[in-house]
Amino acid sequence: MSKSITQDMKYSQSLMKNAEKNCVSRASRKYNKSRSYIYFWKARWDGSVESLANYALDHWIDLKRYAPEPETRKMLKTYHRQYGQYLKLKVSLKTNLITLLDEVFPGANTLFTSAPRKSDGHEKWVDFAVKFWHRECVCGGSEAAFAKRYQKWCQKHGYRFSEQKALQIYEIASSHPNTLPKAEDTKRLITYAVNQLTSITETLSSIQNEMLSLASVLPKFPVVMGMFGMGETLGPQLMAEIGNIERFERKQSLVAFAGVDAPAYQSGTFESQKRHISKRGSPRLPKTFFQVMNTILQHAPADDPVYQFLDRKRAEGKHYYVYMTAGANKFLRIYYGTVKAYLRQLDC
């Protein structure tokens, strides 16, 4: 342990000397540290290695005692990280399938607008591509013959049948040309692509169900899921990344951890009016919050304070990223106060 502490102190000493010799900006780029971090330690450095350790020694009584993360929260966070990795694979596989379908059945991925099935995550157009993998599978016969085959397929896979939809599909298949022939090799390529996408979709659905199951045992689960914008996907994701709310002493600490705060930027008499978010803390939370803000904007609940705030900023002519970030900031503050109050009631 003493060896690692000494190495850390030597590293900090080297950083301070570099900042003293050159400048803070150059040291920040070389050591990949923020300027605020360097200024923090530079104010405490008197030229000796010991001074870099004195801050922790002087304030040890005020520092929070380390507590290991509970097993449930740790597993929930791990599931969320895996969910993100598999989601990237799904996007890649879906793009690949659409590219192949554009050569055999252009527009097949836009035939249906129904949401993915909750039980296994299957999408109708993907299942449709297994049976009707080429446009000639649709328009190779009469409209009545296809409508009958389509109806049997819908009954077999549990989808709703519409005769009007069948005629629309037939019309699209008849009017779009293909570049790859209707052959066994082509069918094999489509089948491989569909099977890979289906497999990753089912895996994502299973992970999502596990995340929901793990999150449901957390004390804050009812109050978080009761907030507008929280669903079976975003709710567990948010709880996984934020973790224990008790480790944040103030709401500003939670906002900073989420990386959606606007840091001060001032030098002498110059003060910037256009600042970017700090992006410190969790790199995954900003994405989750943007999804939550999109959900709130799409549903537009008139009595929701976050939506009222977003709508007001949007009406003021603020840039999209400005009011979305400000909305995420406000949502976090409400989240902090609501969850804190709920947990306090449970302790009483």
TrEMBL record:
Q: Where are the transmembrane segments?
A: none
- Name the source's superkingdom: Bacteria
* Transposase IS116/IS110/IS902 C-terminal domain mapped to chain residues: 224-305
Example GO biological process term?
DNA transposition
Q: Which InterPro entries match?
A: Transpos_IS110, Transposase_20
The UniProt entry, under Pfam families, shows:
Transposase_20 (PF02371)
GO molecular function ontology, one term from the record: transposase activity
* Protein name, as recorded: IS110 family transposase
This chain's source organism reads Acutalibacter muris
